[in-house]
UniProtKB/TrEMBL annotation:
Source species: Vibrio marisflavi CECT 7928
Keywords from the named record: Cell membrane, Membrane, Transmembrane, Transmembrane helix
Protein name per the record: Uncharacterized protein
NCBIfam families in alphabetical order: PRK02237.1
Main location: membrane
Length: 109
């Protein structure tokens, strides 16, 4: 259980790093924020890449599970950072995706 909790937490950290790395250029390009946001964005995407390498599973399986956690993290970002309440379809889709991630993870461990 500790191992799975560690990897889920690592996936969430990885997703946050990727979202920050993509959200900051979005702010620059679409909301006329400072071009200097590209510096922390690049650093965040570097951290994202490094974090993704910390998973010991096969790369394709890791990316598949990460993709599911990323979607759920993006929905939480929508709610927490952008202050947009997720719809019931966002929540339902997130739960379906988490079920798929669990099938991949527990089916291979």
């Amino acid at each position: 259980m500790i191992k799975s909790t560690y990897f889920v937490g690592l996936f969430f950290l990885t997703a946050i790093a990727e979202i920050i790395g993509c959200y900051l250029p979005y702010l620059w390009l679409n909301q006329n924020k400072s071009v200097w946001l590209l510096v922390p964005a690049a650093l965040s995407l570097t951290v994202f890449s490094w974090l993704l390498t910390l998973h010991p599973d096969d790369a394709g399986r890791t990316y598949a599970m990460y993709g599911g956690i990323y979607v759920v993290t993006a929905i939480l970002w929508l709610w927490g950072i952008e202050r947009v309440v997720p719809s019931r379809w966002d929540i339902t889709g997130g739960l379906v995706i988490l079920f798929g991630v669990a099938i991949i993870y527990f089916g291979n461990n």
